[in-house]
Write a structure and sequence with these properties.
Radius of gyration: 20 Å
Number of helices: 5
Helix content: 25-40%
Strand content: 15-25%
Structural class: alpha/beta
Order of helices and strands: HEEHEHEHEH
Strand order of the largest sheet: 1-3-2-4-5
Shape: elongated
CATH topology of the largest domain: Rossmann fold
CATH architecture of the largest domain: 3-Layer(aba) Sandwich
Number of strands: 5
CATH class of the largest domain: Alpha Beta
Length: 152
């Protein structure tokens, strides 16, 4: 017997299926399974300051620069809060809402044109959302983040 592994949907018998009803059932089951367990695999790092009115949100390589800015702000007496997402999808909506609960503003830093900031705007419609992103081959620096925080 030859067994192949693909991303195609399989039926109860384990073989690839083109039955749209069966595909729909499998996809619904997988989606329910995934979304019901999102808390168990949503990894993050957070530094919440009680006097902060701004949450800096970063992920990936921008998290390193964001962490530097967090420490600089804390040491200078102008604390900000920081949320570093290590799991992006499915979007950890409850986690993001919880971490942004006591701030007025969220600054999202991304090494792209703003794909994730749209999710943040959707999740936090009552917050001021600012975006810092670039796609020119250079990393976003702590200085750029500090300027975005100051000019928001």
């Amino acid at each position: 017997m030859i067994v192949r592994q693909t991303s195609s949907t399989h039926g109860a018998d384990g073989y690839i299926t083109t039955d749209t009803d069966e595909i729909s059932r499998v996809q619904d089951r997988l989606n329910t399974k995934l979304t019901s367990k999102v808390k168990s695999f949503s990894f993050h790092e957070s530094y919440l300051e009680k006097d902060s009115d701004t949450l800096l949100l970063a992920y990936g390589i921008t998290a390193r620069a964001a962490r530097d800015v967090y420490h600089e702000c804390k040491n200078s007496g102008s604390p900000i809060s920081l949320l570093i997402l290590k799991t992006l999808w499915p979007v950890p909506e409850e986690l993001i809402k919880e971490k942004a609960e006591h701030v007025q503003r969220v600054v999202v830093v991304e090494m792209n044109l703003g794909q994730y900031v749209r999710e943040i705007e959707r999740i936090l419609p009552d917050k001021i959302i600012d975006f810092l992103g670039q796609m020119d081959g250079r990393l976003i620096s702590p200085n750029q983040i500090a300027k975005a925080l100051a000019h928001g």
